[in-house]
């Protein structure tokens, strides 16, 4: 650009005094919201290439290598379909293959995302019974038992549950749910939303007897939003052959078992997302799933320890899920000392320190002043100790700057959790 057309540069003269208190947000920003999560440079770089030929060649070999790794990711030897979709699209993909109009589903909801799946199933013409366990509790199996026992004709075709509900951060015991269904000899298929938990929380599709698992690319899988995944059992494939909600684009069998390359995508492949996925699966393979689960466990415990310390000086600061056994390891939902402290803290962290925290989702309606009392901290995907300790330190500074009452010792408590885990 010729010099005369350049916009005037801001003055760099060092003699100018800062006009405000220093802003400490300059530097690499950190998006600590529960999706999209941090994208590794390796994943971004893998996408930076020319469009490949989709009619043969290297792309076919690369894609052939994805299927076994995707199966291993979910702990299954069965089927997996990839969709060009976000999590809502993955829900509808599962629904379209599972149901016929007039079928019945039992949805177990432990937060906003359980309710969301129920809404998508109902909108497609399926009768939905929702068992709502509220916004801060896991599934109560006694209530599920009651509902399944009352279903004497076995009208319920599918039970759906959210493994980790990203809104409440409740984590459900999927294996125990399957055991209950088996003990009651109820034939319903079990479908699980692992969008938040995949590659963060331990999940074993085949060992736990799950029939359908849904996930999306932009959380623990570390790929930009745009890929949805549906893993399905051979049993689900057989049982749902006649499902009449299925249309050619959403049908899972050609996507999973197609003999022509285009059938996997019902058209053009999402080429660059697939390069990103290949790189992310390499990273997951290099670290190893058990190590990834342990890393998330440790980072989650560091976050919980900080909140416990803050809570000791202000009982209004508290985690949404009281029992650690029922907390997701990828995201933590909290009440931050009441409204509007959570919003003030989120704004401070983003504007003053370069860290974006998650809004409270589904805890209060956006128009309600209470909405400003909740936030979420993500510790999902490409996150390490310095990032999580950094987020907690920034929150600590924000609590002090904004004079939000809180207990002492949060950062030391978080560091102790990290230290303890590395000694184990
Ligand atoms: C993020 C999320 C969704 C929705 O995914 P989108 O990609 O935003 O459509 C659904 N369920 C759970 C558990 C999630 O974490």
TrEMBL record:
<dbReference type="Pfam" id="PF00266">
    <property type="entry name" value="Aminotran_5"/>
</dbReference>
<dbReference type="InterPro" id="IPR015424">
    <property type="entry name" value="PyrdxlP-dep_Trfase"/>
</dbReference>
<protein>
    <submittedName>
        <fullName>Alanine--glyoxylate aminotransferase family protein</fullName>
    </submittedName>
</protein>
<dbReference type="GO" id="GO:0019265">
    <property type="term" value="P:glycine biosynthetic process, by transamination of glyoxylate"/>
</dbReference>
<dbReference type="InterPro" id="IPR015422">
    <property type="entry name" value="PyrdxlP-dep_Trfase_small"/>
</dbReference>
<dbReference type="GO" id="GO:0004760">
    <property type="term" value="F:L-serine-pyruvate transaminase activity"/>
</dbReference>
<feature type="modified residue" description="N6-(pyridoxal phosphate)lysine">
    <location>
        <position position="219"/>
    </location>
</feature>
<keyword id="KW-0808">Transferase</keyword>
<feature type="binding site">
    <location>
        <position position="376"/>
    </location>
    <ligand>
        <name>substrate</name>
    </ligand>
</feature>
<feature type="domain" description="Aminotransferase class V">
    <location>
        <begin position="75"/>
        <end position="336"/>
    </location>
</feature>
<dbReference type="InterPro" id="IPR000192">
    <property type="entry name" value="Aminotrans_V_dom"/>
</dbReference>
<dbReference type="GO" id="GO:0008453">
    <property type="term" value="F:alanine-glyoxylate transaminase activity"/>
</dbReference>
<keyword id="KW-0032">Aminotransferase</keyword>
<comment type="similarity">
    <text>Belongs to the class-V pyridoxal-phosphate-dependent aminotransferase family.</text>
</comment>
<keyword id="KW-0663">Pyridoxal phosphate</keyword>
<dbReference type="InterPro" id="IPR024169">
    <property type="entry name" value="SP_NH2Trfase/AEP_transaminase"/>
</dbReference>
<dbReference type="InterPro" id="IPR015421">
    <property type="entry name" value="PyrdxlP-dep_Trfase_major"/>
</dbReference>
